[in-house]
Amino acid sequence: MNVASSGHRFSNVNLEDPNFERTPYDPFLAYGRSKTANILFAAAFDQRYRGRDIRAAAVHPGVIRTELGRHMDPAMVKAMMAQLEKQLAAEGKSSFPWKTIPQGAATSIWAAVVAPAEEIGGKYCENCHVGQVVPDDVAISPTSEGVRAYALDPNAAEALWKKSEEMVGESFSR
Questions:
Q1: What's the CA gap between 58 and 140, in Å, rounded?
Q2: Bridge pairing between strands 129-130 and 124-126
Q3: With contact defined as beta carbons under 8 Å apart, do 42 and 156 qualify?
């Protein structure tokens, strides 16, 4: 199981420049790329090993108050949350739905213990169910559910697997 995030929606992977050597670094872009890579990796792993009854899934625990943002500028975080609350209000939604640590753990536990492997294998899971694919060109609210199609694309998953092998200098046979 890989820990993913709805933050995958910030960006698809960039296998031509995975380490931001030619692209200006942006923390949210980097986070989005890394979480998309986690989902693609789970899809590729599942495809390779399901024949051996070894399954993989990507799990979004939800947004939990953790130390993830400890290096972020507090003013930037405050402005970002204010913008998010404004957007939610415009959509007629209540305040941002933070999760507690037990609530955040629920989807991981569901995927590991409760969900049928054939249901979650190679998929993105959130809120104790398999996330629905949302086409890349459809607008999506920050609090909506769903996984971008690019994050489950089998060709992109295979390309990521090959790039990963190249980067670590190893080949992982099927």
A1: 20
A2: antiparallel
A3: no
Distances (CA, A) of 42 to 29, 126, 151: 20, 14, 10
State the pTM of this model. Answer: 0.89
Q: What is the rounded CA–CA span in Å between residue 124 and residue 109? A: 14
Nearest to 49 by CA among 160, 164, 173, 162: 173
Task: Report helix, strand or coil for 28.
Answer: helix
As annotated, the active-site residues are 31
pLDDT tens digits for range 5-64: 999 999 999 999 999 999 999 988 999 999 999 999 999 999 999 999 999 999 999 988
By CB atoms closer than 10 A (0-12, 13-18, 19+), residue 95 is exposed
